[in-house]
């Protein structure tokens, strides 16, 4: 079943998913929530700069792929990962694979992953008067990339399907043009650590710290499915996932830490006890 014919389909699916997530997470009109986010960036230079820095890091990740192609560096650590894991990923994939499940896993990997990130940033601006969770999310995502990019450059590991003959690259069943349309966003040998794992773990930790129960459980369950999808689709090794989990936990902790010390006049704020309390305080 083909879900995505081009990146235009990915963009439309992502836009719709973000709208649904914002409505679910806030219980408010998603257009109003999005408008609040835009106004916040317009009136707060610090939050605008932080958002710009986040976009800059994402751009840096794309530039890393261009730089990597020009490097005279031919190391390949994939055989090491295979020596450690053997047929583990192949066995997991064969155990899980179902025809009806492939579109679900592809949708989670490509669309829901990035939609959760976008929705988290916008929602935390709307619900949190201190904006601490917004800042923590920005810092944490940047930390994920800053730590991961050197590994991508100097510790290259090829995707599991590319190296292991018994692992299938199942995402092509739902996105046949993946290699030509999406590959420029994700290098073939940029496996360790798994950013899909680390960012999903980061978002889940911050969601649970928000104390919005339905949002926390939604993000937590989505993170678990996204992490499963990296094996189902034949992309990552188990070692990639373990490294990504450690990176995600570390990034979330550092993001929360740094977000305490960038308020005006040197004030610090506690982690929100509940978003309901914060919303009532704002009103």
TrEMBL record:
UniProt membrane topology term: Multi-pass membrane protein
Domain of life of the source: Bacteria
Keywords for this protein: Membrane, Transmembrane, Transmembrane helix
Bilayer-spanning residue ranges: 12-31, 43-61, 107-127, 139-157, 192-208, 215-235, 241-258
Cell compartment(s), UniProt: Membrane
Record PANTHER family: PA-PHOSPHATASE RELATED-FAMILY PROTEIN DDB_G0268928, PTHR31310
Name recorded for this polypeptide: Inositolphosphotransferase Aur1/Ipt1 domain-containing protein
Organism annotation: Paenibacillus cisolokensis
């Amino acid at each position: 079943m083909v879900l995505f014919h081009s990146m235009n389909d990915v963009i439309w699916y992502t836009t719709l998913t973000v709208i649904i997530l914002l409505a679910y997470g806030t219980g408010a009109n998603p257009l109003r929530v999005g408008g609040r986010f835009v106004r916040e960036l317009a009136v707060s230079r610090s939050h605008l700069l932080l958002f710009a820095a986040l976009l800059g890091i994402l751009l840096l990740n794309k530039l890393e792929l261009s730089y990597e192609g020009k490097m005279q560096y031919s190391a390949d650590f994939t055989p090491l990962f295979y020596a450690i894991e053997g047929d583990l990923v192949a066995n997991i994939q064969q155990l899980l694979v179902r025809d009806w499940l492939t579109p679900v896993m592809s949708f989670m990997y490509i669309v829901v992953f990035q939609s959760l990130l976008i929705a988290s940033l916008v929602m935390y601006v709307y619900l949190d008067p201190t904006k601490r969770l917004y800042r923590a999310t920005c810092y944490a995502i940047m930390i994920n990339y800053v730590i991961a990019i050197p590994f991508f450059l100097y510790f290259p590991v090829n995707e599991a399907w590319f190296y292991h003959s018994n692992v299938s690259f199942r995402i092509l069943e739902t996105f046949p043009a993946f290699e030509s349309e999406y590959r420029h966003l994700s290098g073939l040998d940029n496996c360790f650590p798994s950013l899909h794992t680390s960012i999903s773990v980061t978002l889940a930790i911050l969601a649970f710290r928000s104390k919005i129960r339905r949002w926390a459980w939604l993000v937590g369950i989505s993170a678990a499915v996204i992490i499963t999808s990296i094996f189902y689709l034949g992309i990552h090794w188990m070692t990639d996932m373990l490294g990504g989990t450690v990176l995600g936990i570390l990034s979330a902790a550092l993001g929360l830490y740094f977000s305490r010390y960038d308020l005006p006049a040197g004030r610090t704020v506690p982690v929100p006890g509940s978003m309901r309390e914060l919303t009532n305080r704002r009103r």
